[in-house]
Amino acid sequence: MSPALRVVTLPPTLQGAEAVRFAEEVRRRGANILEIRTDLHSPEAVDVLALRQVLPLLVSERGRPLPSAWVEASTHVDRDVTVSVDAPASKLVASHHAERPLSTAEALRLWDQPLPSTAMVKHVEPLGPPSRAPELLETQARLIERFGAGRVTVLGMGPVALPIRAVLARRNALDYVAAGGSWSAAPGQRLLDDAVREARAAGGATNLRRGILGTSIVHSRSPRIHRQPFDRIDIPEDGPVEELVDALLPHYAGFAVTSPFKLRLAKHARSPLEAINTLVRRGDHWESFNTDVEGARAVLKRLGAQEAFVLGDGGSTAALRVVAGDMDCRLRVLKRAEIQAPLTGAGVWTWPDRVPPPEELRFDQARVAVIAYGAPGRRVAKEISRRGGTPVMLGAAWFIAQARRQRELWETAT
Fold first, then answer.
1. Phi/psi class of residue 248: alpha, beta or left (left: φ > 0; alpha: ψ in -120 to 50)?
2. What's the number of domains the chain is made of?
3. Is residue 86 included in any domain, yes or no?
4. Per-residue pLDDT tens digits for 12-67
5. SS3 call for 234
6. 152: helix, coil or strand?
7. DSSP helix/strand/coil, 168
8. Is residue 336 part of a domain?
9. Measured distance CA(265)–CA(290) in Å, rounded
10. What 3-state class would DSSP assign to 387?
11. Domain for residue 223, yes or no?
12. How far apart are CA 219 and CA 375, in angstroms?
């Protein structure tokens, strides 16, 4: 079966020449189709003739009727199967967006109607709880049996739908992905760059996936350095992460676990460790590890202090505690209420940059290790400098040390 065609939706804020530049940019990055929706753009807002010179167009009727000029310029025409399938047969994408999760039987009844033999079929519904993943996969399988491979697309939507969409994409005709930034066309979309990275990887045909679980992880480098397919699973802090990893057990070799789920998943996996950052599939269950100890060791070695304060008491601090004794380094883990006088000496800042530090926090020429990297690391460093400290950028050292061990562990997955 051919790989799914990557579809990027034109953001509603882009019109005219800006829309054309957007199309050129996503084409360069690996998009195959540009979608234009009537609920996001008026006919006069976009130049469909200019856009179709850049990418094939998929025009979608959402509320307002499709302009005839859009239909003529398009390669694909999306019409709701419950409203009308009036479109050229060779262009038709017959779609339905369910308002609630459906059983496979309910979904199949929706599609129990004649369609042109060349029409594509797109079925979309809210994922609901992660435990519904097998039902959505069964719906996809049954629709492919009915309509044929290469014609069917099944999508789940919702705050924890991304990994399910990634699994569905392997048999879908179309893969709706987000270009990046602050806007996406639907909750649960993968990033275009991540989908392209998987498609180009030599190991992309493996049955089991890998991924990183966290909140606000758009900056993560894990998808760039680990073997593909590797998914960036960014879910809300209060999301059902325990139920999600259990639902994904048949499809994933393992996960990198980052803030804020290190403590919760340690408890869920019945780990003897206080916090974990790695799950590895062992048949019908997950085995847990904390390779952050390798990162903590690298940071304390580079910091070179016999005594250090630690700001934050989450999963990273648990790893620092494990290795500090072996390295003859005495740690002072400071609770927020204990921070009074300006801090001196050496320290480690473990708070994610989305966690505001206490207003009274000040440093007196302290050297403070930053274990975040990229834009979050730079924001933390700026905050340290503003409060009188000297940031020591050690996020890359921590990341590389722990990631190397994670890779070794995932290769042992069964």
1. alpha
2. 2
3. yes
4. 999 999 999 999 999 999 999 999 999 999 999 999 999 999 999 999 999 999 99
5. strand
6. strand
7. helix
8. yes
9. 11
10. coil
11. no
12. 7
Enumerate residues 6+ apart whose C-beta is below 8 A from 363: 342, 343, 344, 384, 387, 388, 389, 390
Q: In 3D, which of 264, 4, 88 has the Cα closest to residue 79?
A: 88
Nearest partner of 193 among 165, 212, 221, 168, judged by Cα: 221
Residue after which a domain boundary falls, among 200, 221, 256: 200
Report the SS3 class of residue 50.
helix
Q: At 336, is the pLDDT very low, low, confident or very high (cuts 50, 70, 90)?
A: confident
Strand partners, 348: 310, 369
- Domain holding 333, by residue range, is 293-399
C-alpha torsion sign, points 95, 99, 104, 105: negative
Question: How far is the C-alpha of 147 from the C-alpha of 61, rounded, in Å?
Answer: 22
Does 206 or 125 have the greater pLDDT score? 125
Among the listed residues 80, 77, 79, the one whose alpha carbon sits nearest the alpha carbon of residue 91: 77
* Predicted confidence (pLDDT) per residue in 252-302, tens digit: 999 999 989 999 999 999 999 888 999 999 999 999 999 999 999 999 999
* Residue 1 confidence (pLDDT): 62
Instruction: Name the percent of the chain lying above pLDDT 70.
Output: 99
365: domain CATH number?
A: 3.40.50.720
- Sign, CA dihedral 219-222-227-231, equals negative
What does pTM read for this prediction? Answer: 0.87
279 lies in some domain: no
- Is the separation of the CB atoms in 18 and 208 below 8 Å? no
Kind of pairing between the strands at 92-97 and 76-80? parallel
- Distance from C-alpha of 45 to C-alpha of 7, rounded to nearest angstrom: 20
CA distance 122 to 277: 37
- Residue-wise pLDDT for 346-358, tens only, equals 999 999 888 889 9
CB 365 within 8 A of CB 259: no
Of the chain, the percentage scoring pLDDT greater than 90 comes to 83
No. of helices (H) and no. of strands (E), the chain: 14, 18
Structure tokens at 56: 């094939």
Q: What is the pLDDT of residue 42?
A: 95
Say how far apart CA 247 and CA 319 lie, in whole Å.
Answer: 28
